[in-house]
Amino acid sequence: MYRHGVFLILFLLVFSAPLTEAKAFTGLISGTVETEGIANLLSFEGNHFSSINFELGLESHLDYEGYHKHNPRWALNLKPSKNSEITIKRNHEHFTSPDTFRLIKDTNFLSKTRLYSLRYGGIHGAILKNVPFKSLDSVDVLYLAGNIEINSASFRVTELKYAGLKESGSARVLEMKVDSELMASSVAMGWQEDTKGDVSKGFISEIALKGKKLNGSLEWRQIHPGFRSPFSENEKHAKNRRGYHLTHNAFVGNLKISANFRRHQNMEGTRQYNQHSWTISAKDKHTEVEWRLEPTTAFILRYEKDKIRIQLDAWNASLRYANRYGGLNYDLRADGKHGIFRWQLGSGQKVRWRAIGKYDLNKKRTHHSVFVIYELDKATFQLELGKYDRGNILAGFHDSPQFCISWGYEF
């Protein structure tokens, strides 16, 4: 009954205005066949005037054991005035909170997740129903944030409360940023209280120099073990960390000299997460030298011009050569320390594709993956075999076989 009522409201909003008003409608039908099962989506999008946008859709999922489910998907966006916006959604990407700790991420939702949102000027209030709270619970969230700008300074306050069957708590973030022509600074302080009443804190402060000959930044952070990005699939900042991070760039003639120095540890002081490296770049010569001392030692020489890329790490006996021959891109890598060879071929023409192969000499193991996408004006076909290693020469050897075939057509 509730779903039918929403569809009726959308229908009336779209078709009750005079016929002389311009309307635009688009549709999408897509499908996926992958290792876990089969999924399909049929959706319609439209706008009426410039202030009403809507989307209606239906998703279906079928696994290989015969279990299937259908979920409605819809969104309605209204802009009554220049400074106001009303949004209602179900089973849809919602919003990402702009605070430093990213309390909420738009892709964190379930098929039953709903959003009721109101924005007016610098104030944003929202209610999220049935949002996943990590893997612990599904909760309801009350969110309120306000932002004020005074000359070059901005102040933001964010507060949320959540409650579910097993978990409940609250979070608050206070932020201040000052930005000028030569310098920028920011401070973010956060407090979170969990179901047990335990309070965790997060603090990040940064100052940056924006000079033409010398620039850099200095950051200090202290994030307790229990402080997290509660409604995001991944943490934006690693928890249980404290310490400082210094970076700087100096320009001397045609040279750029960069330094990266980080001293991080856990709150107990038993683990270190340090970084220390120096880089000298000569852009007119297309060359760069990096000397890395922490967390691992490396001495890397790089040359990059047009499509050619050469990288040699003499310390770790690794070599990379990438180039383009005609319409073919190729990338060859060798890691002598681990005894691994990796090749990658690809093309960026109308049919885009990428093929990767790796071989481990020491452990006699292999890894392969293939990606192909064919795009027309309104249609797309995509094939994936294996899992992309994201350029990490050590990754992927233990991945289980997987595939994904997907397609889409807009009308």
Summarize the structure.
The protein is 3% helix and 63% strand.
List the helices and strands and how they pair.
Elements: H1 2-15, E1 23-34, E2 37-48, E3 52-63, E4 68-81, E5 84-90, E6 114-120, E7 123-133, E8 137-150, E9 153-164, E10 168-179, E11 183-193, E12 199-210, E13 214-223, E14 241-252, E15 255-265, E16 275-282, E17 287-294, E18 298-305, E19 308-313, E20 318-325, E21 328-335, E22 340-348, E23 351-360, E24 365-375, E25 379-385, E26 403-410
Antiparallel strand pairs: 1-2, 1-26, 2-3, 3-4, 4-5, 5-6, 6-7, 7-8, 8-9, 9-10, 10-11, 11-12, 12-13, 13-14, 14-15, 15-16, 16-17, 17-18, 18-19, 19-20, 20-21, 21-22, 22-23, 23-24, 24-25, 25-26
State the main characteristics.
mainly beta, 1 helix, disordered N terminus, 411 residues, 26-stranded antiparallel β-barrel, 3% helix, single chain, globular
Could you explain how this protein is built, in words?
The protein is mainly beta and 411 residues long. The protein has a domain at 296-411. Helix content is 3%, strand content 63%. It contains one helix and 26 strands. It has a 26-stranded antiparallel barrel. Strand 8 (137-150) and strand 9 form a beta hairpin. The longest helix is centred in the first third of the chain and has 14 residues, at 2-15. It is globular. The model is unreliable at 1-22 (pLDDT under 50).
